[in-house]
Amino acid sequence: MSERRAAVVTCSTRAAQGIYTDATGPVIAAWLRERGWTVDARLVADGPAVGDAIGDALALGCRVVVTTGGTGVSPSDATPEQTRPYLTTQLSGVEEALRAKGVAAGVATAVLSRGLAGIADGAAGRAFVVNLPGSRGGVADGLDVLDGILEHVMAQLDGGSH
């Protein structure tokens, strides 16, 4: 089997400035490694650096790109806007499931997440890109959703049947 390459992009200006430690990117990276993925992890400031990191990951052949942070409604939250240009197909059902999981866990503000999910073209073929919130709870909920679909999405991107 060829190398399964993934990227985790933590989108946080304060973490990138060293004001606090990234508590979500390492969780996502460990989750992917447990599932056999080689992981490239990056910590970037909110804004255009997020789009640059996504583009770099796709150019390097990552088949999965998971971002964490920057999905809310604060003025600096721009992860969806930086992600959208890369998506050739948006997966609104995944987006809805991610928000619904948070609401079901008792987090009413999960509906404010603007995170996207979809398919992008990359150097190694089509890739799955998903934006998770920047909170530990939001990431845990998001990984729970992804746990049920990641392998199926990848099989589909590789031409597998339903």
From TrEMBL:
Source superkingdom: Bacteria
Stored PROSITE patterns: MOCF_BIOSYNTHESIS_1
SMART domains in the record: MoCF_biosynth
Domain MoaB/Mog: 7-153
Gene3D superfamilies: MoaB/Mog-like domain
UniProt keywords, alphabetically: Molybdenum cofactor biosynthesis
This protein's name: Molybdopterin biosynthesis protein
Organism: Dermacoccus nishinomiyaensis
Pfam families linked: MoCF_biosynth
PANTHER family the UniProt entry points to: MOLYBDENUM COFACTOR BIOSYNTHESIS, MOLYBDOPTERIN MOLYBDOTRANSFERASE
Any Gene Ontology biological process: Mo-molybdopterin cofactor biosynthetic process
InterPro entries: MoaB/Mog-like_dom_sf, MoaB/Mog_dom, MoCF_biosynth_CS, MPT_Adenylyltrnsfr/MoaC-Rel
Pathway stated in the Swiss-Prot or TrEMBL entry: Cofactor biosynthesis; molybdopterin biosynthesis
